[in-house]
Amino acid sequence: MAFLAVIGHPVAHSLSPLMHNSALWLYKLPYKYLAIDIPPTSLEKAVNILWNLEFMGFNITIPHKERVAKMSVELSEEAAITGAVNTTLRRSDGWKGFNTDVQGFISSLSRLGVKTIDSCLLLGAGGSARAVIYALDKVGTRKIIIANRTRERAVRLAEFMMPKISCKLEIVNLNEANNYASKSELLVNATPVGLVEDKLLIDPEALDSSQIIYDLVYSHKPTSLIRAARSKGCRTIDGVVHLIEQGAASFKIWTGVSPDASFMEIVVRNELWKRWKKSGAGQDNM
Fold first, then answer.
1. What is the pLDDT of residues 87-119, one digit of tens each?
2. Which of 194, 187, 191 minimizes the C-alpha distance to 210?
3. pLDDT tens digits, 43-65
C-alpha cells in the first residue's frame, strides 16, 4: 500500500483524508491518505521523513505552500508562476510540485457558468492568493484589488506576480476593503478568517446581489462571509467546492484517474452536516 497525505498547521479540521480515502475506496486503489500536522519549524525535517517513508505524494495547506515550492526539484507551470505548491508527486530524484488551486478555482467558477471575470476584490496575500491571481488572469480579469492586513505582504505579492500576468493589481488597506467590495464583480476570501476565527472582514451592506462571493475556507458550518452573501442574494462558492475541485485535480496527478467530483462532494458535505449537528447548531443556515 502506498501513502499520501495533507500537511499543514493546523490540519485537524481537514476533510481531505475523508474525501480522498473515499475516492480511493470507490476506485479500489491501494493508497492510504493521512493528515499530518507539521509546524513551520519542522517542515524540512518532516518532508524528508515523508520521502524516506516512500510517500507517493502529499497535499500542502497553510502555511507551507511557498516553502514547499522551493523544496521541489521541478514545478508545474502553475506552481512555477505562483511560487506556491499545494500538491507534490514523488519522482526518482525528488518531489515535483503542482498548484491545483489554479485549476480548482477556474473549475469552481465554471460551476456557475462563469467563464470570465472583469474585476475582483481579493482578501489576503498568502500562497492561496497567488493561485487566485493567476487563475483570474487566465480567465481574462482586467483588475484585481488586493486588501490585506499587512500592506507590505500585499506589496510583495504584487511585485512577485505582476511580471507574470497581464491584469492590473491594486493594493488597499484591509480597512478600506468595504469601499471596493460593491464595485467588484467577484469577492474572494483567501485569508484563514472563517477557519480559526469566524468573523466578517466585509460589511454585509457592502455586498450586492449581482456579485459572486468566493470563500476558500470551509468549516462545519457556512462561514460568516458565505452566510452574509446568501442573505444579500449573491451567488456563492464555498470552500467545499474549492476543496473538491482542487482535490480532484490532485487525485488525477497521483492516480491517473479523474474522480467523480459529485461523489467526493456528497461525502464531504455529509460529514460537515454531521459535525454541524454535533456542535449543537441549528439547521436554518445550511
1. 999 999 999 999 999 999 999 999 999 999 999
2. 187
3. 999 999 999 999 999 999 988 99
> What is the homologous superfamily of the domain 102-240 according to CATH?
NAD(P)-binding Rossmann-like Domain (3.40.50.720)
With b for 16 or more beta-carbon neighbours within 10 A and e for fewer, the 5-32 pattern comes to: bbbbbebeebbbbbbbbbbbeeeebebe
Same fold for the pair 2-99+244-261 and 102-240: yes
Grid coordinates representing 6? Answer: 495533507
Annotated active-site residue 65? The verdict is yes
* pLDDT higher than threshold 60 for residue 281: no
| Grid cell for residue 118 | 472583469
Under 8 Å between Cβ of 127 and 193? no
Q: For residue 239, give the C-alpha cell.
A: 470552500
pTM score, whole prediction: 0.92
Specify the CATH number of the domain 2-99+244-261: 3.40.50.10860
Catalytic pick from 28, 32, 65, 115?
A: 65
- Tell me the three cell numbers of residue 15: 476533510
Residue 65's region, left for phi above 0, alpha for psi from -120 to 50, else beta, is: alpha
Domain range list for the chain: 2-99+244-261, 102-240
In this predicted model, what pLDDT tens digit does every residue of 230-244 receive, in sequence order? 999 999 999 999 999
